[in-house]
């Protein structure tokens, strides 16, 4: 009844067209006022920041584009030297980009590392898509990594053999990062499980490994790999330098990833463990079918963040003289003609690192939002 | 419910069965697995160890730390204690350790300040400021630290020489020889004033404790600030004035080809400090932001409803809760700065890694050299994490 009276009352009110909010409350002016000029102190901050930003941007554009030198005829860098501090010398990139990307790999064979880089990127993209998250993905990884090995070394199927000492540049960075993670990840799972194990000896070993590795800088492990490994092996047996550095990176990454995985194992509710026990599953059945699938899913975002860290950390191999992207950049400007153009080279190399890391970071943020969607209201 | 209730489950612990020698007994399985794993790892370690001993014999490398007493003969550009190349390796390594600590401690302080500012800026209502802080954090965290260090070092090397040094503020010179700052001439009076300040700080802390304890008894608040000002400001100034108030500013000035006087930061140290600070500040900013966001808005409102003024709300309600979220990840950032300072070797700043590396190249004592590096970092890491764990336990939420 009350509904009816309300309805009739509403009907008596004369209809008016919906009014738009006052002009000062919508659109650009309102946004500007709310976000940039809401109070005098806010206005002052905006003006000061904008002033410095514009000044810096103008300076950068003048240096990087307007006054820049884009190419010079055969290593005659005088034009660049005259503009030191006024204009950038992008000619160093024009001249050296093949060297920075591929190192000392034979020039005619540069398509091989280039193809490897594409394969790596493709592998990352496929692994990032949730619809491919199944067991077959491991086979894809094995297949692609083998193919990359064949392409880089050659010696079969009409490809000329290229010794490992001549590899260099971006592909080394990707090899160190990808192979490092491919081996460190299973190691990390085993260590994380071991650290939560009820067997005291195994737990102690895992704790010792993780804490020891996490307490020392990566450099000391790389030094160890480069100067101490040869002492560890029997006489006459030798592993090449890249493999030794790779081993150090695997050991290092394993300890950090193990802690991330352990976080996932700990955040799983106790009921999951008990329910699995109650079903009569063995330890490995319980771990493989119940615990790990849930725990790993939970830690994917922090795992990706750790991956970003390792991708950046592979650059440390520069210190023991392995020819990765950063070393190639640093070596490119050793030649007297090109000395002193470090800024340009490091900006370019930095842009390459940035593209990879930024993509991973955005992916991790998106994934986190997606995996947490059921929690958001 | 009475206090004497006993959880009945605790009375029904399963009786200990005698150990059966069968694969179906899980305790037997546990022992077998452990023996197996420890045995395999022990065998690998023993194999590596015996190889090493054999290799050392073949190469005629003497083991042991006897080389530490020998003359180092390696020049070190900057040092906090007196050092000459005729000193021993031990002294050289000590210099390296002090150089590591010098960059790590200063880096931790600067990165904390800068990171906090950027973290708060990212939460600012000012859109421009928040965006700039966000872009800074994204970019700096996505570039390798080593690359950033090389970049800053290259930038410093590209600066003009001392004669055309940049001079943004009077007395501050930036050139390819590093950064020069004015500094006061340190005299005994300053040391005594510093001691007075430290004593005053300790006294203030004791007074504050006593004041809080008394307030707990009678409920009357006691102002701490007059004591703080007296003990930490007036007392040191009085000590300094009583000793003649020496105040001589040491301005850097160009003499010949380089600067003399003032506080001198070598380009290597400056690039390392700059790189470490800017890089770590990006991470600290995110930690601070997360910590502040972790305190629900209701806490602010509830505290204001209780009649606390904004300063009290921040100090007594919000910060203690935010710190709980901030401290554990901050600890790992402090550890990271310390460990990352080892990248100094790439730009030629002589920290412990750089000097130990030179030492092991000169003496061939690879194992000892690396053992020293690892031991130093493990000690530093463990001390920082012990301290931060202690601090964390102090501020942690005490539940019933």
UniProtKB/TrEMBL annotation, chain A:
GO terms for molecular function: transmembrane transporter activity. The chain crosses the membrane at residues 40-58, 110-126, 138-161, 167-194, 206-233, 245-265, 303-323, 343-363. Gene3D superfamilies: MetI-like. It comes from the Bacteria. It is a multi-pass membrane protein. It is found in: Cell inner membrane; Cell membrane. One of its GO terms (biological process) is amino acid transport. This is Amino acid ABC transporter permease.
UniProtKB/TrEMBL annotation, chain B:
InterPro entries: AA_ABC_transptr_permease_3TM (IPR010065), ArtM/GltK/GlnP/TcyL/YhdX-like (IPR043429), MetI-like (IPR000515), MetI-like_sf (IPR035906). It is found in: Cell inner membrane; Cell membrane. It is a multi-pass membrane protein. The keyword Iron does not apply. Gene3D superfamilies: MetI-like. Its main location: membrane. It holds the Pfam family BPD_transp_1. CDD domains: TM_PBP2 (cd06261). Keywords: Amino-acid transport, Cell membrane, Membrane, Transmembrane, Transmembrane helix, Transport. One of its GO terms (molecular function) is transmembrane transporter activity. Residues 97-388 form the ABC transmembrane type-1 domain. GO terms for biological process: amino acid transport. GO terms for cellular component: ATP-binding cassette (ABC) transporter complex. The chain crosses the membrane at residues 30-49, 103-121, 133-155, 189-207, 227-249, 269-288, 370-391. Belongs to the binding-protein-dependent transport system permease family. HisMQ subfamily. PANTHER family: AMINO-ACID ABC TRANSPORTER PERMEASE PROTEIN YHDX-RELATED, MEMBRANE COMPONENT OF AMINO ACID ABC TRANSPORTER. This is Amino acid ABC transporter permease.
